[in-house]
Design goal:
Blueprint: H1 12-18, H2 21-42, H3 46-68, E1 71-72, H4 75-94, H5 97-100, H6 103-129, H7 139-168, E2 176-178, E3 181-183, E4 195-197, E5 204-205, E6 208-209, E7 215-217, H8 220-247, E8 261-262
Antiparallel strand pairs: 1-8, 2-7, 3-4, 5-6
Amino acid sequence: MKAWKRPPRKKLGTIIAERDSAAFVHYALRLIVLLILTVQIITQNFENAFLCILTLILFTIPSLIEKNTRIDIPDTLENTILFFIFAAAMLGEIRSYYVTYPFWDTALHTVNGFLAAAIGFSMVDILNESERFTFRLSPLFVVIVAFCFSMTIGIIWEFFEFGMDWIFGMDMQKDTVINTIRSVSLDPTHSQKVITIGNITEVAVNGEELGLGGYLDIGLIDTMKDLFVNFIGAVIFSLLGYFYLTRRSKRTAFIERFIPTVAAKE
């Protein structure tokens, strides 16, 4: 029996002729990022140029996984990952979508929760199908692992954001303007009594008003919101994954488009 070998990558002409949407998306996004990289270098914006290079490197990860392992990533999952990277780096950071559109970050974290759960789900499902393992895990246990894997990835990302802000002075944990604060630190009796200050419309720093219209929360609300929507994305995939494993109906068959599998040996 011959060892498994992945077929060579198609050329651009072949991709167009065969209408291979997955490969076309890959090339199109790379071309767009290269054009943005060129503009950033010309304008001497080297921070954005580095971000473009990092994006190109991230684009290669799904291809490297498929090339060097027997793992087959479905086209829908691969395209979603590529669009996710592009939306986060090119649109979110360089085009400032995170600031222009408040929902942008929320949407990306929701998608991240969904995708991470899909990857965690596939890892356990692949072990279930492997002949080298004599045990079989129940569908409920598979989706619990998928859910926990997704939440772990979300937490690690929030650790990364906090580290970048704390160590390198960035602002990845975006601030939130609020009009009410509650704190025991404001209790003059030091008896753990919660003191509430409401209707905050202005805050001054070093005697200068900031003009924000309220109190500036430094990242806490953003972090908890990100984890909450990551939770929602993970729950959605876990529920769909559970019905997929237990019923295998046509209504849940589309979930296969997000689950990596192991390619069979020739």
